[in-house]
Design a protein that fits this description.
Elements (H helix, E strand, L loop, with lengths): L2 H4 L8 H20 L13 E5 L15 H10 L4 E3 L5 E3 L2 E7 L4 E6 L13 H12 L17 H5 L11 E5 L2 E5 L7 H4 L10 H7 L15 E7 L3 E6 L12 E5 L4 H9 L5 E2 L6 H7 L5 E14 L9 H10 L4 H6 L4 E2 L21 H10 L11 E6 L2 H18 L3 E6 L1 H10 L4 E7 L6 H4 L16 H12 L3 H18 L3 E13 L3 E2 L2 E3 L10 E2 L8 E3 L17 E3 L3
Parallel strand pairs: 1-10, 4-22, 14-15, 14-16, 19-21
Antiparallel strand pairs: 2-3, 4-5, 5-7, 6-7, 8-9, 9-10, 11-17, 12-16, 12-17, 13-17, 18-20
């Protein structure tokens, strides 16, 4: 009995249809575990990787989306100017070399001449020029528009102050040369050119197909795989790209299923229907059972989780209430609940990154929490409104929010309601009208403090707290352009304390890990601290060689004292 043969060609058109399919998968998965009379079949298909995305990607338009689920698809069908090495340093990709000029304020990228889109057309610097203008165009509504704020005129264009997109400081000098001009030196800028937000895009395809340009029949890509099939709310299939400039990947096909329930997905793994599982499919109970397996791996991540407040909605427009919540939650409880190597957070910036502090966040202090709550007019929790705590539909997340709910009741005498939403709906709610409380996380876009601290600046598209603080904004802005590492660290630490202690705009809870269990035939996938899963080096075969790599963040983060000088780059002065 095979998962795909059992549910043939589903075409869900609504959440009800999606729920039916998920329920059907659950029933089938448990049947697979319980029944022994099924027809024999191969445990795996050589060259075919089967994994679980966990949910439907909200979008694979790499300007619209900001979530990791969509990113897992995008990074395997696209390639940018640079790419990450195993240790997360920047290496050539579409750009075979680049120059850093004008003391770090100008980058000139030289593209390879053997890069092609899947329809056979060459990738040119004009495709990057169009993409970078599109992400800053206010009409796009890009979630990562602020990503390019260091580029000349980017913020002014995105906020409507400048209407002419050609004024963006990113230009194709010719078909093979792409120039970027920055407002100030930025030590982390080269990392950003490896992120999906800066990937090239075909103007003719987007304009022809409009909001359907990412459908398999329409999309053109330039990465190791191509989007071959998308059965919404069920499965995405990627096929090897024979035109990929680094060479055809070893995998012929990747099947990405969308099974939300961790227990159901793990049952599929145990029945050899999936080739590996991660946190989306690997619950605490399963980790406990397989912790000693030679195929179990734990990868430290540069990912922080937090309790967010909508600081414009009562009662959380009062920082005394936010501080009370922060001091009423014992963060040490969460690693004990999840038991997957999590670490309580004392800073919003993970400790592996320069800029982290050991005491930026408020600590557990129920007595002080009750005093702040009383000062805000809610002594003993009396008169405190019942507010929702929004969280996404995952079993491990439910453990966390239930603990938060119980701790706030015990330590402050207040009642909060738990609001559970499916992933796409949850993301939309946070973006459009976040409730008073929400549970969220943030995985680093690149290994630098800026990706964490810029998140909560005024107007950032991912700042769902709606919190705004001019002093914080100034500290972060100054730190972005500071090339003296000691001064830069100090600026970020000051900003971190404002965010997590003085204003308590968020409550950092814990830093996560990625837990993985692989079948012995799953080879060559390189896991890293950014939780970016690249499959171009992957294999599915029965050889004895094991090539799955883990790169812990403690070994990858090196302080930058000047603009990064990657391989094949040349630093010049005017």
């Amino acid at each position: 009995m095979n998962l795909e043969n059992t549910i043939s060609n589903p075409q869900p058109t609504s959440l009800n249809r999606s729920s039916f399919i998920v329920s059907a998968i659950a029933i089938i998965a448990m049947s697979l575990v319980l029944l022994t009379g099924c027809a024999s079949r191969s445990r795996f298909t050589p060259g075919v990787l089967r994994m679980n995305l966990g949910t439907e990607p909200p979008a694979i338009d790499w300007h619209i989306t900001t979530d990791a689920t969509s990113g897992d698809v995008i990074v395997n069908i696209m390639a940018g100017l640079t790419q990450y090495r195993k240790n997360l340093s920047a290496a050539p990709s579409c750009a075979e070399s680049w120059e850093i000029l004008d003391d770090g304020k100008r980058y000139v990228f030289h593209l390879r001449n053997d890069i092609f889109w899947t329809d056979g057309k060459p990738v040119t610097a004009y495709d990057f020029e169009y993409a970078w203008r599109r992400i800053e165009d206010p009409k796009t509504g890009a979630g990562y528009a602020d990503f390019l704020n260091d580029v000349v005129n980017a913020k002014e264009i995105n906020t409507g102050k400048i209407k002419d997109l050609t004024q963006l400081g990113a230009h194709a000098l010719d078909a093979q040369t792409f120039e970027v001009r920055l407002k100030k030196p930025a030590a982390y800028f080269i990392y950003m050119t490896a992120h999906w937000a800066t990937y090239p895009m075909r103007q003719d395809v987007v304009e022809k197909h409009k909001d359907r340009w990412t459908e398999p029949a329409n999309i053109v890509t330039n990465g190791p795989f191509k989007l071959d099939r998308w059965q919404h709310d069920y499965k995405i299939e990627l096929a090897a790209n024979d035109k990929f400039f680094e060479g055809r990947p070893a995998l012929d096909r990747i099947k990405m299923f969308m099974v939300a329930e961790q227990s159901t997905a793990f049952a599929l793994f145990e029945n050899d229907e999936l080739d590996y599982v991660d946190n989306r499919s690997f619950s605490t109970h399963d980790v406990d059972r397989y912790r000693d397996s030679p195929y179990y791996k734990r990868v430290p991540l540069l990912q922080g989780t937090y309790i967010g407040f909508n600081c414009l909605k009562k009662p959380f427009d009062d920082k005394r209430v936010r501080r009370a919540i922060a001091m009423a939650v014992d963060k040490n409880v969460f690693p004990k609940l999840l038991r997957r190597g999590e670490r309580p957070s004392n800073s919003w910036i993970p400790q592996e990154i320069p800029g982290s502090s050991s005491d930026a966040a408020l600590t557990f202090d129920p007595e002080a929490a009750r005093k702040d709550l009383a000062d805000a007019g809610f002594a003993g929790g009396k008169g405190f409104p019942s507010v929702p705590l929004l969280y996404p539909n995952r079993e491990d997340t439910r453990l966390i929010v239930e603990s938060i709910q119980a701790q706030l009741k015990q330590n402050l005498g207040i009642t909060i309601e738990l609001l559970n939403q499916e992933w796409k709906v949850y993301l939309a709610t946070r973006r459009q009208d976040p409730p008073q409380l929400f549970r969220a996380n943030w995985i680093a876009d690149f290994p630098d403090a800026q990706t964490f601290m810029n998140l909560f600046t005024t107007g950032n598209g991912n700042n769902h707290t709606r919190w705004s603080n001019k002093t914080y904004d100034k500290l972060v802005e100054t730190a972005e352009g500071e090339l003296d590492q000691k001064k830069r660290v100090g600026l970020y630490q000051q900003a971190d304390r404002i965010l997590c202690h003085d204003e308590a705009a968020i409550v950092p809870t814990f830093v996560t890990t990625q837990n993985l269990l692989l079948k012995p035939w799953t080879k060559g996938i390189e896991f890293n601290a950014l939780d970016i899963q690249f499959f171009k080096t992957g294999r599915i075969d029965d050889s004895n060689e094991s090539l799955n790599k883990v790169e812990p963040p403690a070994e990858i983060i090196k302080p930058a004292t000047k603009p990064i000088e990657p391989a094949n780059s040349e630093v010049k002065k005017p």
